[in-house]
Write a structure and sequence with these properties.
This is Zinc protease. Helix content is 40%, strand content 18%. It has 451 residues and is of the alpha+beta class. It folds into 2 domains: 2-237, Metalloenzyme, LuxS/M16 peptidase-like (Cytochrome Bc1 Complex, Chain A, domain 1); 261-447, Cytochrome Bc1 Complex, Chain A, domain 1.
Length: 451
Amino acid sequence: MRLTPRPLFVAFALFAVALAGLPPRPADAKVFSPTVYTLDNGLEVVVVTNRRAPVVTQMVWYKVGSADEPRGKSGIAHFLEHLMFKGTKEHGPGQFSAIVARNGGSENAFTTYDYTAFFQTVAKDRLPLVMELEADRMANLQLTDKVVLPERDVILEERRMRIDNDPGSQLAEAARADLWVHHPYGRPIIGWENEMATLTTRDALDFYGRWYAPNNAVLVVSGDVDPAEVRKLAEKYYGPLPRKDVPPRDRVQEPRHWAGSRVELTSAEAGRPSISVTYRAPSYHTAEPRERAYALEVLSEILDGSVGRLYRALVVEQPLAAGAGAGYDPDGLDGSSFAFWATPRPTVAVDKVEAALRAQIATLLDKGVSEDEVAKAKQRLIDQTVYANDSAGSAAHIIGKALTTGSSVADVEAWPDRIQAVTKAEVEAAARAVLDPVNSVTSVLRTKPTS
C-alpha cells in the first residue's frame, strides 16, 4: 500500500487540484463535467463519464488520515488501510484482492495525513462487483488478533524498509518534525516505530468504527459509465449502509515559530548528497486570500522542471548541480509546504550548492519574476488539464483529493480560470509572504566514505 507524501527534499509537480446536493446535475463544465449528488445516508457521489476506453475506476475516499489519529497511536490510519483487506463475513481475508484480480482488475489503497483512499480499475461491466465489495467492507469489516498481529509485523517491516534503511527518508522524517513541531503533520504517516509496535485489534476497530461511514466518505466513479446507471448502483450497494455520528476533525494548530531550523545527516548509505530548504505554506483550504495558493502553484512552475529557473541556473548555466527544482502541493486540510532542492554534481561540495540555491531564493525575493515567466508557467499548468482526461483514474484522484481536503467540485472545475487569473504581483507577494526563514527547515544529506 502506498503512503504519501514523499520525502521533503524531493520536488514534485502535479496537477492535483482542488456541491454535493440533490437532484443530480452536471457541474459547470470546465475540466471533467461531473455529475454530483449525495445519497440519503450522506455518501457524496461524483461521476465522470470518459469514453476513451471501456474501463471504469471506482475510488472511495474517507475523510480521515494520519493527522486524525489519537495521540500515542501513530500509524493506526495506515495500519487500518492494510486491515481493510482482511475480510468481512461475506468475503474472507484476501478475497477482496483475489476477486478483483480474477475479474481482470487492479486495485490498491493509500494513506495520507488528510485522507485514506481505496480504488479499483475494472472493465465497465464489473462495476457492480467492485461496488458490492467496497460497500461490504465499509460497514462489515471483521478483525481478530489472528489477522491483525501478523499484519502489524508487516507494517513494522515496511517502516524498516522505507525509513530505517533509507538515509533520505530518515532526514525527511526529522525535517518534517521540525517543520511542524506541534501539528500532527509532523508525525510520520506510517507512524513512530515504538507506537506502531503497540497497536492492537481494539485500536483498529475503534478507529474504523469512529471514522469509516458513508457520511464521512466520497465515492468517485470515472470512466465508460452512464451517470444514471451509476446512481442506481450506488443506491443499491451503498444506499442501505447506515450513517454514523462522526466526530469533528479537531486538530491542534501549529504555533508561531521563532527561528528556522537545520537538520543534517551524514551516512555511508546515502547514494548522493542533497540540500533542501522547505517552508510552511498555506494550502487551498488555508490560504488567505485563497488566490495565494494559485499564485504559489505558478511560482513553483516557474522554478521547477527542465525549463525552470533552478534547473537552468544550477544545472545548465553554472553548473553545480545534477538536479534542482521546487515543489508545492496546494492540497492540505491544515496547510502545506513549499520546497527548494538540489543535488550536487559528484565533484561539487553540497555546501557550495547550498550557497547557490540560497542565492536563487534571494534573487527571487529581491527581483521577483517576469511577466513572460508568469505567462509561460500559467500556460504549462493549464495545458495539464488536457492530460487529466487521458485515463479514468485521473479524474477520480483529483476530485477525491479535493473533496477530502476542504475544496469542492466547483473548485476543481474552476481551476484553469483561477490559474489564468494569477498576476505577476500576486506571485511576488506570495513569495514574500511564504519564503520566511523563520518558517523554514534546511535539510542537508551528506555522504560518508565506506572506508
